[in-house]
Amino acid sequence: MKATVCISIVILLVFANLSLGRTIGSEIYPTEDELYEAYLIGQIDYQTYLNLREIFNSGIDSTNLYLIEEIPNINYFREYESDIQSELEKEQTKPYVSDQVGISKDKFSGSIKWKRYQELDEFGQDKNQIYINSQLSQDWSFKLNGLDEYTGHQEFSFRSLNYKSQRGTIRKLSIGNFTTRFGLGLTVGYRGRILGKDYLSPEETLLFPDYGGFNGIYAEGGHRKNLVKWLFHYDKNDTILVRTSALNVVRKYGLFKVEGTLLGSIISNRLTKTEFRQYQVGLFMGYFGYDIDAAIEVSLPKNNLEQSSKNNQAAVAEMTYRNNDFTLKLSTWYYGQNFTNLFGGGRSGDLYRTVEFETIDLSYRDRRNNQRGFLVKTSTSLSGQIDAEMALSIYGSSRYERFIEIQTSLGKIFAEKSRLRVYYELFRKEKLGEIANDNSLKLEYNYKLPQFSLRSFLGYTYDNENQKYLSFHFRTKLKNKILKEIEFWVNFSRINIETGNIDYFYGYIKEMVDITKTVSLAVKYRYRYNRRFAEPVESTIYLETLMVW
Q: Given a cut of 60, is residue 5 above it in pLDDT?
C-alpha cells in the first residue's frame, strides 16, 4: 500500500508546476436546475448539460449503468461497481438513479410526476414537465416524458415500452427510446443529441423525440453465457434521415468475455437525396476477476468518403485493480483523425470538435474525433479515518494541443457522522504554444444524521485570466414528522478578492410534504444573481406533485 501511495505522490510532483483546474471534482447537482446553473458559470459545457439533463430525466438503473460515465468526475469501469465507489461518487450519482418509489414488479403499479416552473417577473412565463413510469406486469414496463417549454413549444422527450424476463428466448425487448452499450461503447453506446428538432410538432415528437439515445427496437436473447443483441434505430428531422442497425454476439468463457459487433448505417439528406453510408466492425475482449478487470475494444469503420481508409481506426482499453484499502483505475483511448461514428460512446476527454458531412449538410459536436489520451485514478485508505483520492487525465490531438486535468483530495473522518476533506484541482490547456491554467482549492465539511445533513465548502480559484475568486457553498437538509424534508442551498460562486464584488449567487429553499400515502408535494423557490447578464436577477417558483399507485 505504501508503494501505491508513493506512486500517486510522484505523479503529482511531476505535474506540480501546472497549477489547478476547473471545479469539476466535488460538485453535486441534485436537480436539473443545478445542472443549468453549472452550465451558466462554466463548470460544464452546453453539450454536457444537455446529456446530463437527459440522463437525469430518463434515469439510470441496472440496465444502463454505463451512463454514469457522462457524470463529471465519475468513471464507469465495470458492470457492477457501486460497492467500490467513494462516498462522494455515490452522492454525485444518486440524483440520476431512477426513482422507483411505490413501484412493484409483482403487480400493476407506477407513478406520475408533474413539475411546473413559474418565473416571477413581469412576463411570468411558465414551463411544465410530466413523467409517467408504470410497471404493467411482472415483465412489462412503460415510460413517457413530456415537456411544455417557456416558449410554448410542446414535445415528447422520451417514451418506451420494455420487456425483461429471466426465461424464454428473448430476455430483453425495448420499443421506442432506449440506450445500450456493446463492449466498451466504442461502436455502440451513448453519445448524446445529433439532430436538432426545434421545428417538429408535438405529434411528430411522439414518433421522433428529441433524445440523444436510440429510437426504434432493441432485442436481447440467448443463454447467459451466449447472448445475441440487435438494434434498429430510425430517426429524422426536417432535413436528415437516419437509419442504422447493429448486431452484437457475446460469448463468455469463465472469467473471460468476447464480443463482436457489426454496425451499418445510412444517413441521408431528405431534400437532396444524398447519402452517407458507414459500416463498422467492433471487437471486444475482457477479463473480469475478483481483484482485476481488464478490457479492450477496437473499431474498424468504412464509409463512402474519400478519406474513409485513412487514419479512421479507434481503440479503447481499461483496467481496474482493487483490494481492501486501494483501488486503481486505468484507461486509454485512441481516435483517428478521420474517425466518425454517430452511435458510439467510448471513453474520451472533454474536448469537443465540430464534425461536418458536407455531402448531406450535417454537422454535430463530437468528442471522439482526432483525440488520444489516458486516465489514471486511485483511491487509498491511509487509515480507518483518513483516505486519499487522485485522478490524472491527459488528452489531445498532438503535442501542439494538450489538456491536463488533475483532481486530488484528502479526507478525514472525525466521527462516524463528521468528515473534513481538502480538494485540489487543475485544468491546464496547451494549444499552439499558448498555455492557460485554472486553479482551485476547496475545504469541505460534511455532517450527517438520520434527520439532518450538512455539506459546505470554502473555495479559492485562480483562473487563466489571473483573476482570484472565493466561493462558498452551503447545503442542509432537515426531516421531521410534519415536513417530509426541507432543504436549503446557498452558492456564492465568484467573489472577486481584489474588488469584493459578488459576480454570481444562486440559492433555493425547498420543502417536501406527504399529502397522503400515495401523493406528495414539493415546493421550491429559486433565486439567481449573475452580474454578467443583462438582466442579472431571476427568481422562480417550482412545484412538483408525485402520485404513485
A: no
Cα 120 to the center of its chain, rounded Å: 31
Cβ atoms 445, 459 nearer than 8 A: no
Q: Where are the alpha helices (DSSP H) in 249-341?
A: none
Total Cβ atoms within 10 A of residue 182: 25
What is the helix (H) or strand (E) element at residue 409, kind and residue range? strand 401-415
Query: Which has the closest alpha carbon to 232: 173, 156, 276?
Result: 173
Could you tell me how far CA 394 lies from the centroid of its own chain? 20
Summarize pLDDT for 134-148 with one digit per residue, the tens.
989 888 999 999 988
Q: Which residues contact 250 (CB under 8 A, 6 or more apart)?
A: 222, 226, 227, 228, 229, 257, 258, 259
- Asked if the model's pLDDT at residue 23 lies above 60, the reply is no
φ and ψ of 464, to 5 deg: -75, -5
Residue 311 · residue 335 · CB < 8 Å: no
User: Is 500's pLDDT higher than 90?
Assistant: no
pTM of the prediction? 0.85
Q: What is the pLDDT of residues 148-162, one digit of tens each?
A: 876 667 888 899 999
Cα separation, 103 vs 134, whole angstroms: 7
The answer to whether residue 18 scores a pLDDT higher than 50 is no
CA distances to 225, 329, 364 from 326, in Å: 31, 10, 40
> Which single residue is written with the C-alpha cell 413501484?
103
Sign of the CA dihedral with 101 first, then 103, 105, and 106 last: positive
Paired with 390 in beta bridges are 378, 408
Q: What is the DSSP letter of 466?
A: S
Question: How much of the chain exceeds pLDDT 90, in percent?
Answer: 41
